[in-house]
Design goal:
Length: about 130
C-alpha cells in the first residue's frame, strides 16, 4: 500500500507539477487508478480511457463551478418566448386582420341598411295611398 506522500511524489514525477485545484484525495484516487491500469498491462492509452470513464461517472472536484439550473432556465426562456410571440401575433392579427374586416362588414351592413330603408319607405308609401 502506498502512502499519500509516495503517491504525490509519483504524480509530481509523472506530471511534473500537480494542479493546485486538485485535492490530495482526488490525486490519490487518480494515482491508484493509474497504477491499477498499469498493473493490468493497458499502458497509458488504457489509463486515459479509464480516466475518461471514471470522470463521467465519478464526481471529481473542479476549479470551475458546473453550470447548474440549466434545464429550468431553458424552460423559463422557452415559455416566456412562446408567450411573447403568441401575444404579439394575437395583437398583430387583431389589429391588422380582424378589425379591418369588421370595418368592411360594418360599411357593407350600413350600405345594405340604407338600400333596405329606401325599399321599405317606397313600399310603406305605396301602402299608405
Amino acid at each position: 500500500m502506498h502512502t499519500v506522500a509516495e503517491v504525490a511524489s509519483e504524480e509530481v514525477a509523472v506530471n511534473e507539477k500537480p494542479s493546485p485545484a486538485v485535492s490530495e484525495k482526488a490525486l490519490t484516487a487518480w494515482a491508484a487508478r493509474r497504477r491499477a491500469m498499469d498493473n493490468m498491462g493497458f499502458g497509458w492509452m488504457g489509463v486515459a480511457w479509464f480516466g475518461v470513464m471514471c470522470s463521467l461517472f465519478h464526481k471529481m472536484p473542479s476549479a470551475i463551478a458546473p453550470i447548474t439550473n440549466r434545464f429550468s432556465q431553458r424552460v423559463i426562456r422557452d415559455v416566456v418566448g412562446s408567450l411573447t410571440v403568441g401575444i404579439a401575433s394575437g395583437y398583430a392579427y387583431w389589429h391588422l386582420v380582424h378589425l379591418p374586416s369588421i370595418e368592411q362588414w360594418r360599411a357593407y351592413d350600413k350600405k345594405v341598411m340604407a338600400e333596405t330603408k329606401i325599399i321599405h319607405d317606397a313600399w310603406a308609401a305605396e301602402q299608405g295611398k
